Amino acid sequence: MRDPVSVLLNALGWIGAVVMLYGYSMVSASRMAGDGLPYQMLNLVGAIALMVNSSYHSAWPSAILNVVWSVIGLTAITRMVAVRAGKRTVNTP
Which residue from 51, 70, 71 is spatially nearest to 62, judged by alpha carbons? Predict the structure, then answer.
């Protein structure tokens, strides 16, 4: 019987890969905006899942890549939320 933690973390890695590929395919097919919140969220979730999986397997180059990918995604999402909040503040009478 396989270790349940190993099975869970391997599944997490596969889910992360599928999530990121889904986002990329949607942008490539012009069905989702590459600068939109949904795409950024997919990238962030996928990168975090792959980061955890890569770290578990001691695949440090991939883990570090996904840390950086997550920081980029989190920065983009933070900016989008701030811009939306600013627009609500400006448009309020």
Answer: 51
Give Cβ neighbours of residue 21 (< 8 Å, ≥ 6 apart): none
Q: Tell me the two tokens of residue 66.
A: 């996904």
Q: What is the dihedral of CA 68, 71, 73, 76, to 10 degrees?
A: -130
Closest CA to 46 of 62, 57, 30: 62
**C-beta separation of 68 from 38 below 8 A:** no
CB 42 within 8 A of CB 23: yes
CB atoms within 10 A of CB 41: 16
How would you class 73 by CB atoms within 10 Å of its CB: exposed for 0-12, middle for 13-18, buried for 19 or more? Answer: buried
Helices (H), the chain: 4-28, 37-56, 60-91
pTM: 0.88
pLDDT band with cut points at 50, 70 and 90 for residue 90: low
